[in-house]
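Hey there, shall we discuss this one?
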Amino acid sequence: MNLQFSINDMQRVKQDWTNWWKGTIDHPFFGIEAIDDEAAGIPFTYNEVTPVETDALSAEQILDGIEEFGEGIHWYGGAFPKFWPNYGPGLMAAFLGSNLRIQPDTVWFDPLGVDGLAQIKPCFNPENLWWQQVRKLTTLATERWDERVMVGFTDLGGNLDILASLRGSENLLLDLSDDPEDVLGLLTEITHLWMQYYDQLFNLTNGNESGTCGWSPLWAPGKLYMLQSDFSYMISPRMFKRFVMPDLTACCDFLEYPFYHLDGVGQLNHLDQILSIPNLRGIQWIPGAGQPEPEEWLDVLRKIRAAGKLCQVYVSRAGMEKIVSALGWQGFYFHINEDMMLTVGQARDFGREFK
């Protein structure tokens, strides 16, 4: 694989990330993924849903395609080459029996079709088709690329989101009021299984030696995960405290570098509770479709940093400059996200400005 990224580059990036987690990094921390200047305008597609292995497309061929695309990318700052088996958010629902339907630009999880919560029996099934697919791709990618490309975790999801996929969101909303104790019992089982799947993926990716990453742009020298609860958009802070906080707290105690995916303005009602979790390391703030960009939410970013948490945002170059001017750069990781990928020349020019 002819990457525009050396082993020395990876070592430098890992050291910067390690310093960022410790709070000792001595410069603004941002990452850029750029394409060769002559390839400007080519769509950036390597994070689309991973193809399913079929008779016509083997796991090795899937990785060949990822590899070919990766050779045209350059990584700057804290950015680094990586691959993660992407079958949509909350894939653990498919591990537990939900039928997964892959569409050109999204995925759908079919509910189990049960009459009640008592019929849902989550368990670890090593023979599950989707678990086998993720396990195979993760293993082959780790063996093929070793230390040259980070192999990340598939998106397991948050436990309430996983249960919503199994039960159906409307049914689960009713269950929260009608059968709260049964919901809590299932969530506890799902959390224990989540940790079991996490540990298996951690071992498959040699996490002890290589560190960990996932779908987000973060890397950490130990157990990292971007926790989430998209379902919480539909529930009150009181319900969030009862049904989400126990799982988040348990996962933050289980992980060394837990982050939370704060996705959309509807989750701001829960931000104070999330920030109160002692072992949570940081927040990824995404305002959501149709909302102003992250740099327009300085009060939210200020609150995150005032709580002693790190913060990751996707911003334009101008957006990063606005945040740095207002709040400083300490504790932030800025992943530069323009309307179209920067060319190598643009990336280098921007890097020089903040060097």
